[in-house]
Structures are given as structure tokens and as C-alpha cells.
Amino acid sequence: MSDFIYRPRIEVLSAADGVRRRQWSDEDKLRIVEESFVGHRQVTATARRHGICRSLLTIWRRQHRKGELGASRPVSFAPVTVTKDVPASRPGPADPPDLSRNSQVEIALPNGRRLIVAAGVDADALARILSVVDGQ
User: Fold this and answer.
1) I need a surface site. Which of 38, 63, 126, 129 has the fewest CB within 10 A?
2) Residue 112 lies in a domain
3) How do 104-108 and 114-118 pair as beta strands?
4) CA angle at residue 134 from 116 to 124, to 5 degrees?
5) CA torsion, points 96, 102, 108, 111, in degrees to nearest 10?
């Protein structure tokens, strides 16, 4: 007579047998993200083509929008308006701002840091400072 008792086979897997987590360079991430922006509803198809999870591509796209993806971002400047504090009791237009050597500009960086520089700082020097402080 045969033995009809169900005995499942057990297979032991070790971590060394599996595929390790892939490391993506910033250039590869940027290339894949830019590819996902082409056309309509390309996130899932692009993720499938590159063998990554759709949620990972969504995270990379969010990082790209915030400017956190890619190590070679150029330093860019935003327009600035200089105003002078006017007391509430004094009606009328404000005096033109005095941009003397004592004036300072506070720059809020995307990584949360703030940089205070003199108003007459050289643009090239400021770009070098921003590249160091911003971690680029």
C-alpha cells in the first residue's frame, strides 16, 4: 500500500542565493525619470521596461521635481525684490531702498539651509559658495 499522507517539500533559501538590491546612479535615475515624462501615462510602462517598481519611479519623479535628483544641477537665481520696512503709522510711499555695503541678502536653499551674504557680493563667488553649501 502507498502512503497517502501529504508531506510538503521544504526548500531552504539563503540570502546569498537571491539577487542583491541594485544600485542606480544619479545619471541612470535621471534618464529613466525623463523617459517617464514622455507621452501620456508612461510611469508604469517605463518602470516595467527598466524592471523597477512603479512606486520607486514615482519617488524618483518626486525627487526630480524638488530638485533633489542629480548631482550636476546648475546654480540658478530667482528674482528678488528689495523693500524697506515702513511703519504702519506713516502713510505714503516708501523711500527707495538703500543698497549700501551694510545691506545683506538672505538666501533660503532647497535643503533647508540659509545663507546670508552682502548685497554687493560677486555673482561668480556666490555661485561657488552655493555649490559648496548646497552640497552639489
Assistant:
1) 38
2) yes
3) antiparallel
4) 65
5) 170
Backbone angles phi, psi at 106, to 5 degrees: -105, 125
The count of domains in the chain is: 2
Mean pLDDT of 97-103: 60
Sign of CA dihedral 36, 39, 45, 49: negative
- Mean pLDDT over all residues of the chain? 75
Q: Could you give the residue ranges of the DSSP H alpha helices within the chain?
A: 26-36, 43-50, 54-66, 123-133
Do 133 and 81 fall into the same domain?
yes
Question: Is 30 within the bounds of a domain?
Answer: yes
Largest Cα span, the chain: 107
pTM of the model: 0.41
Assess whether 38 and 61 both reside in one domain: yes
Mean pLDDT of 11-31: 78
